[in-house]
Specification:
Oligomer: single chain
Shape: extended
Structural class: mainly alpha
Largest sheet: 2 strands, antiparallel
Number of domains: 2
Strand content: under 5%
Number of strands: 4
Radius of gyration: 22 Å
């Protein structure tokens, strides 16, 4: 049977994208290794007096400018999120009017487990970053109730994040004093 004319499923598309992004990640790693080698050679050549730093710096700067904005394709190496013993328990419901669910606007990479479940959405333009809404909040954040739509399946970082000492959110967690920048930023 000829399957070439059958439409690809979302799972097929995601599988293909993951494979492509894996190759990109491998190439990025190899590029970093090549850069480390080049930097080591430049250091040796300058130390031996074969080239001088003044000649090298314009070339290095041109290379940096050329590679700015390269996409980062990564997957988290998080353990099984359902077997996570270090889950943080905070009464978010009573604090969300103060903190405005600021942690739900943080960006992070997803784990293969999240992708395999096909529940947590990721940003196709920034592979494997958790997807965000236009307002900067997580795609799964419900603005009406300020709750997570996928709480039972939330990613590992959401399970272990502890805002109590995070000065981006709280000036004083116990005193329920949020960072004043939260009010200005939202």
């Amino acid at each position: 049977m000829d399957h070439r004319n059958e439409p690809a499923s979302l799972a097929d598309l995601e599988s293909g994208l993951r494979f492509g992004h894996l190759l990109i990640s491998i190439n990025r790693h190899m590029s970093r290794e090549a850069a480390a080698l080049a930097q080591s050679l430049a250091t040796l050549l300058t130390e031996k007096g074969i080239i001088n730093r003044e000649e090298l710096e314009p070339q290095v700067q041109a290379h940096r400018e050329q590679n700015q904005g390269d996409p980062q394709v990564m997957l988290s190496k998080a353990p099984d999120k359902y077997q996570c013993p270090e889950q943080v328990i905070i009464d978010c419901a009573s604090r969300v009017p103060l903190c405005r669910a600021a942690c739900c606007s943080f960006r992070f990479f997803l784990a293969p487990q999240d992708l395999d479940e096909s529940i947590v959405r990721w940003d196709y333009g920034n592979p494997y970053w958790v997807r965000q809404q236009e307002n900067g909040y997580c795609y799964h954040w419900n603005p009406d109730g300020m709750t997570c739509r996928i709480h039972a399946n939330r990613p590992y970082p959401c399970r272990v994040y502890d805002c109590r000492q995070d000065k981006r959110i709280w000036v004083d967690f116990e005193g329920r004093v949020p960072n004043p920048d939260l009010q200005a930023g939202r």
